[in-house]
Every structure is written in structure tokens, then in C-alpha cells.
Amino acid sequence: MTSPAMSRRTQAVIALLVVFACGAFAGYMYPRTPVRRIRAVVLRPGVEQFDQLGLNESQRKRIDDILASAQPHTDSLMKAVLPALRTFVDSVDMVIRRELTPQQQLQLDSLRAKTQRER
């Protein structure tokens, strides 16, 4: 049988991992990011890989046309999902920040700012 402290610790670790994953995703995809970057990330992951397939011009044009025609739907999905994701991530972040000391909060802010600059 696990002790209440262990259970709480396990829950905190899981919550931290969820926040990290959501924060990384939201930070990368949040609407502050130009739409063209969202397009590149969501719809065109690995497009560079097509260059390694030896596609002829006709194939490449058809693939580009497919991606371009799917783009409006992708944009509308992203616009619908991102606000809810941001709200969720912010609420979990607020709960986690309450567990941190003021110094740890500053350190977390610094780490996040560094991550943003590296993008």
C-alpha cells in the first residue's frame, strides 16, 4: 500500500510531466507564432524529406497542391484548439507555480525565456 505522501508525490510528478509536454507544445504552437510557422509545423512536418525521395516536378507540384488545399482547414483547427490548450496549460502552470519558491519561479521563467529565444 502506498503512503499518502508517495501518492501525492507521484501525482505531482505526473502533473509536472503533463505541464511540460503541454507547455512545450503550446509554446511552440501558440498563436503568437506566425501562421506560416504553424503551417510548417502542423501540416508540413518533414517536407524536406520529399527532396530525398527523388520526386519529379509533377509529383512535387501535386504534393504541394495537396498541402496548400488542406491549409485552410488546418488553420481553422489550430485556431479552435490553441485557445483551449493555452487556457489549460496556464491553469496547470498556475497550480505548479504555487509549489515553487519565488527563486524557483524566477529560474523557471528564465529557462522558458531561454527556450523561446532558441526557437
Account of the protein in words:
The chain is an all-alpha fold. The chain has one domain. The protein has four helices and no strands. It has helices spanning 4-29, 35-42, 57-99, 102-118. Helix 1 (4-29) crosses helix 3.
Rg is 20 Å
Helix/strand order, N-terminal first: HHHH
Straight-line N-to-C gap:
45 Å
Assign a percent range to the helix content: over 70%
What class, by secondary structure content? mainly alpha
Mean pLDDT: 75
Number of strands: 0
Shape: elongated
Short description:
With 119 residues, the protein is an all-alpha fold. Helices cover 79% and strands 0% of the residues.
Quick tags:
single chain; 119 residues; mainly alpha; 4 helices; 79% helix
Summarize the topology.
Elements lengths: L3 H26 L5 H8 L14 H43 L2 H17 L1
Helix pairs in contact: 1-3, 2-3
